[in-house]
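Final report, closing paragraph on structural work. Over the funding period we assembled a curated collection of sequence-structure pairs, and we close with a single example.
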Amino acid sequence: MDSQFTGEFLPTPEEIEEMGRRVTGAVLGGGADRAAHYAEHGRWVYRPIDEASRWVGTDYDHGNWTTGFWAGAMLHLAQLGCADDGLVERARTLSAKLDCRVDDHGTHDIGFIFWPSAALVARLFGDPAAASSALRAAEVLAERRVPGSGHLQAFGAIGEDRSRPTSTIDTMMNLPLLWWAYHQTGAPVWAETARAHADRTARSLLRPDGSTYHLARIGDDGEPFWQGTFQGAADDSCWARGQAWGIAGYLTMACETGSAEYGRIAARLLDYYCGSHDIDALTPYDLVVDTGIQDSSAAAIVCYGLALTLRRDADLARLVGAEDRLARMLRALRRDALFQDEVGVLAHACYSAPHRLGTDGPLPYGDYYYLAALALARGVADLVPE
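Its predicted structure, as stored:
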């Protein structure tokens, strides 16, 4: 796909300016030390940037894992031609603030924190400080690899007994930080770590019908001894955003490695996703259980994976029907979610239905992946390794 990819599913210049105002409002609304985490009733809920994840009794609190998406959102808006000339500087300032999390050994989501922020700043501007931060974050993520199994521990302090077995489908989209480190350094360990996790995920979190579990607990022998969900409607259902993380994650793996097997996995997951609901409408929060809740962020994540594939691998794009599916999902998002909340870019996303948090409002990552997909579709996103 090239920069001539056009259609009514892409935003107008006026809509891009409104996106810029809304993203800037979210970033500035929290002051110097907080960031918008999810939205409820037309208002952002803010959390401290330095708030780390932790166990609270038997529940796991993920802390603030979303701030990095705001830095990336501003950078992609600049690429899309938003006239706000302060976007890049605000993105770089926010990215630098995340250095307080660079040694956070408590979460796999360090990839989400640093890939759309420091790693992207380093790629776009050759910023050595940002590159150093992103590389350190990649090291911390790689340290979560569990010997024997090869999966990257999802929750908690590294090696802690109750956390060590945890593996989630979300981690598939933390792997881009490892691929950035691979392209930055050329060291094969980054690619090997990403492959090991993707291979274990395929054996532990994917069902034969192409759906996914959200969470598995994996023994030292590499076999899952429990499979279920932390976010979906039921252990035997399929959480839509988790399915989207898997789709975009395996599309990324296929693009990075050229592996036909990763491409086939991505195609299976995508076929299940598209066959579970009408992709010309908004995605339900759960692809099996009818809850009445929608999640636009799931479609945005899938759109990102499809747009990336169209830019990087023509054969894979044909295999997964990327161009048609991308156009249909972008059209639905623009028609049914764009600017339909008082804040944010995409309305009708769901942060956590089981915990009754942010069940109908925009999300930082929904907005980020939508903007990244648009920038890729327009041919202006510098996300393809040289």
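The chain is about 50% helix and 10% strand. The domain at 13-378 is CATH 1.50.10.10 (Glycosyltransferase). We thank the funder for supporting this effort.
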